[in-house]
Give the backbone structure.
Amino acid sequence: MAKKIHSLEIAGTPVYIGQGVFGELQEHLDTKLATREVIFLLADENTIEHCYPVLISMVPQLEKANKIIIKAGEENKTLATCEKVWNQMAVEGANRQSLLINLGGGMVSDLGGFAASVFHRGMPFVNIPTSLMAMIDASLGGKTGVDLYSLKNQIGLFSKPSSVYIWPGFLSTLPHRQLLSGFAEMLKHALIADGAFWKKLTKIPMAVVSDWEDHILTAIQIKAKIVNKDPLENGIRRQLNFGHTLGHAFETYSLRNDASPLTHGEAVAMGMICEAYISYRSLGLDHAQRDELVRNILLNFTHYKIPTTAIDELVEITHYDKKNRKGRLMLTLIRDIGKAVEGQQCELALVRESLFRYTDFSRHIPRE
Ligand SMILES: NC(=O)c1ccc[n+]([C@@H]2O[C@H](COP(=O)([O-])OP(=O)(O)OC[C@H]3O[C@@H](n4cnc5c(N)ncnc54)[C@H](O)[C@@H]3O)[C@@H](O)[C@H]2O)c1
C-alpha cells in the first residue's frame, strides 16, 4: 500500500507531509532537481546524528551530498556561522546551479535559507524539518535569517524554499523540551485562528499526545491560510506573531542571562501570557478566556521567573521588534480564543504593567 502523503502550497512552495514524503523527494531528485550540479546538506550536530542516517536510509542518493555541519542552538544562529557555511560552499564549488538541503529544526532552516538565498545572489534550497517547531512553522512561509547580538532575526530576508518535506517520524528522537517548544507555536496557531483546535489541544497535556500527524496538518493549514493571503507580512500575516513581541524579549533576555536559555517556544509561551493580559486590558478579551489561556499554558510550561528589576531591560528589547512603526509598539492581540487582531498600538506603560502582572500572576490568575 502506498504511504500516506498530504500536500498543500504555502506562498507558492509545495509542502509534502506524511509517511510517504521521501518517495516524493526521491522522485524530485530524479526529475526536477536532477539538474542541480552539487547538492549540499546542512545539518547541526544533533540532526546529523539522529536524522541524517534515517534520511539516507530512505533516500540513499543523498549520501553523495556535501555535508555542512554546524553547532546546534540559537546562540549559533549568527552571521559567524553563516560565514563558515559560505566558506565551505565556496571551497566546494557551490553556485546557483547547486542546491542546499536544510535538515534540522528552525535554527537550521532559518540560517540555511538565509545563507543559500544570498550566496551568489541566490541558490535554491529545500527544507526537511526535524523539530515540531520547524514542521509547523519555521520551515514554512519563506522567512529566513539570523540573530544579531542575541536580538532575534535582525538580519534576513523573505526567500521561499523550492519545496518542504515533512516526515513526522523525526519527532521520535526530538528531546521532550524541544517538542514542547514546538507545541507552544501550535497552541499559538490555535489561539489566533481556530478555537476548536485550541479545545482539542488543551483537552490533554501535551505529554500524552502520541499521533502528531493530524495536529501537524491542522497547524500547517492554519499557517497556509494566513500566509497565502499576505506572504510578505504587510497585514494579516502579523497575526502569526501573537506572543512574539514579549516572547522575543524573554528569549533575548534569557540568551543574555541564562546558562541554559529558554527555547523559542518556551519564550513565546511566556509572551502569550503577557499579551493575553494586554488583550484583556486593551481589546476586551474576556477575563475567563484569559485565565483559561494562562492555565493551559502553565499545564505544559514552567513559569519563567524574572525579577521585577528585569522589566526595564525586557521593555527596552521590545523597541527592536520588527513590527514597530514610527517608534510605536505594534502588537498582535486576541479578541477571543481563535480570533486575532494584528496592528494594535500598545503603550509602553501597558507592556510594563503586563510584565509586573507576569512576575506575580499566580496571585491574580485563579487555578482550577
Ligand atoms: N522562519 C520562521 O517563520 C520561524 C518560525 C518559528 C520559529 N523560527 C525560528 O526557529 C528557531 C527555533 O526552532 P527549533 O525549536 O526547531 O530550534 P532548533 O533548530 O534550535 O532545534 C532545537 C534542538 O533540537 C535538536 N533537534 C532538532 N531536530 C531533532 C531531532 N529530530 N532529533 C534530535 N534532536 C533534534 C536541534 O539540534 C537543537 O538542539 C528559532 O530560531 C526561531 O526564531 C522561525
About this structure: Residues 44, 46-47, 50-51, 72-74, 77, 104-108, 110, 130-131, 133-134, 137-138, 141, 143, 152-153, 170, 173-174, 178, 181, 263-264 surround nicotinamide-adenine-dinucleotide (CB under 6 Å). DSSP finds 14 helices and eleven strands in the chain. The chain has two domains: 6-173, 177-363. The mean pLDDT is 94.
